[in-house]
Amino acid sequence: MSLRQMEYFLTVVEEASFTRAAEALHVTQSALSHQIKALERAVGGPLLERLPRGARLTPMGRAFRPHAELAVRSATQAGRAARAAAGAEGGELHVAALHSIAVGALPEVFARWYAAHPRVLLHLHEYATAGALEDAVERGVADLAVGPVPAGRDGTVVPVGEEEIVLVVPFDDRLAGRTTVTLPELADHAWIRCAMEPVVHGERFLDWACASAGFRPVTAVWTEHTSTAVRMAAAGVGVCAAPSHIVHGAVGEDCVVLTPDPPWRRPLAVHARLPLTGAAAAFTDLLRTAWPPPRPAAPLPVRSPTPGAPRGEGAQAGASRGRPADG
């Protein structure tokens, strides 16, 4: 079997039609059918069921598909790595990252990269959870990934820093004049939860942390993205937990940032299936020097609920203790 045959097979699967796949591949339908039949002879059975109006996978095809995807993507990735081996002067680099890191930390890194390497095209792939991110690396979607340190994975892992998780409350909250807070002090608060919330010991991080503090969090709103949860907290819906680089880039004077006591941090790393060379190695070096993302010159202020009322201050980081593990 050949890579071309696997590419043809995957295109038919994606288009669910031999006719549309042939158009997408700019080949005749007979040539496409010939290549698919040759692939099926090579694997020893039918991969696709021909239907009057399309095509669908057979059980053998469903088993074959993920391996074909990995083979095609690995070949593409190998080509990029070979072209980049001499340096970071051209070509493209595919970077995978958690959505929160992509939004909060990577824009400045990408700007610095483009200023230094304008001929290297960057492709950003964003994922909601660390599990999805690691799966993407295993499938060869990207040349490297930026996220929590993967557990028990083969390949290259390069530590790049730590991510601080902070708490966001509205400016008129009773805790607004504080810089730190213990979790039991928030037992009576409503929470804005996010689908991207980390997972620790098989539980969502906030459920696990609050249970350890002796209470169960009351959820007011579920959101899809961390940045939305931060906006909800600033609007007064409740309190949310979010990476500090998301918070400092997303809000102004409408909320207060508190550091949990003990602080919540987790190590971050670049990880890849292959050794880092050329553009991938250069990008990783830049990320290590750029982390952590820059903070404001002063803590985020509290907006006074009435004229003349005292103004509090947001929190800065503490020492590393609690470590969310995923997402």
Characterize the main sheet.
8 strands, mixed
- Mean of pLDDT: 80
C-alpha Rg (nearest Å): 24 Å
Strand percentage lies at 15-25%
> What structural class do the secondary elements suggest?
alpha/beta
**Total DSSP E strands:** 14
Low-confidence stretches: 295-323
The best one-word shape is elongated
Distance between the termini: 38 Å
Succession of helices and strands: HHHEEHEHHEHEEEEEEHEHEHEEH
Count of discrete alpha- or pi-helical segments spanning 4 or more residues: 11
Q: Helix content range of the residues, please?
A: 25-40%
Describe it.
The protein is of the alpha/beta class and 327 residues long. It is built from eleven helices and 14 strands. Strands 3, 4, 5, 6, 7, 12, 13 and 14 form an eight-stranded mixed β-sheet that branches. Strands 1-2 form a two-stranded antiparallel ribbon. Strands 8-11 form a two-stranded parallel ribbon. A hairpin with a 2-residue loop joins strand 1 and strand 2 (54-57). Helix 1 (3-15) crosses helix 4 (59-84). The chain is elongated and about 70 Å long. The two termini are 38 Å apart. The model is unreliable at 295-323 (pLDDT under 50).
Short summary of the structure?
With 327 residues, the protein is α/β, with parallel strands linked by helices. It has helices at residues 3-15, 18-25, 29-43, 59-84, 99-104, 106-116, 130-138, 205-212, 226-234, 244-250, 278-290; strands at residues 48-51, 54-57, 92-98, 121-127, 144-148, 156-170, 180-181, 190-194, 199-200, 203-204, 218-223, 240-243, 255-260, 264-272.
Sum up the structure in keywords.
two-stranded antiparallel ribbon; alpha/beta
